[in-house]
């Protein structure tokens, strides 16, 4: 299947990191999502019930990302993918990219982050 719903540039504030000031003050993160989903039915029916709501995906991802404080971006991205699978049974796979453009690194850099690609766990 090659159908994809994508959401890019979702900006949120969270308190993830290993350093104390990261968990106290927090910082800006940017999340990109790609959801593998069969869109054949919705591409003909024009019914929201045959796909997933972008707004609901954003709400689910944001809540999963911000409702807990994680040391690692890997864990925060994992929480997002877990929440998407739990909330949207139509999603077969998900790619979660988390950008941490203000990571406490003592060099000049444009961006740093993680990319997680997960398939729906088998039942």
UniProtKB/TrEMBL annotation:
Keywords: Folate biosynthesis, Lyase. Pathway: Cofactor biosynthesis; tetrahydrofolate biosynthesis; 2-amino-4-hydroxy-6-hydroxymethyl-7,8-dihydropteridine diphosphate from 7,8-dihydroneopterin triphosphate: step 3/4. Pfam families: FolB. Residues 5-118 form the Dihydroneopterin aldolase/epimerase domain. NCBIfam families: folB (TIGR00525), folB_dom (TIGR00526). Catalyzes the conversion of 7,8-dihydroneopterin to 6-hydroxymethyl-7,8-dihydropterin. This is 7,8-dihydroneopterin aldolase. It comes from Bradyrhizobium valentinum. The lineage of its organism: Bacteria, Pseudomonadati, Pseudomonadota, Alphaproteobacteria, Hyphomicrobiales.
């Amino acid at each position: 299947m090659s159908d994809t719903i994508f959401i890019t540039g979702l900006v949120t504030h969270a308190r993830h990191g290993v350093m104390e000031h990261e968990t106290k003050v927090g910082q800006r993160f940017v999340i990109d999502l790609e959801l593998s989903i069969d869109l054949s039915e919705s591409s003909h029916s024009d019914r929201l019930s045959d796909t997933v709501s972008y707004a609901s995906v954003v709400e689910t991802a944001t809540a999963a990302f911000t409702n807990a404080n994680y040391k690692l971006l890997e864990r925060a991205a994992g929480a997002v993918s877990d929440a998407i699978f739990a909330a949207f049974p139509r999603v077969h796979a998900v790619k979660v990219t988390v950008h941490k453009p203000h990571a406490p690194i003592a060099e000049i850099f444009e961006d740093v982050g993680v990319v997680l690609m997960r398939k729906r766990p088998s039942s």
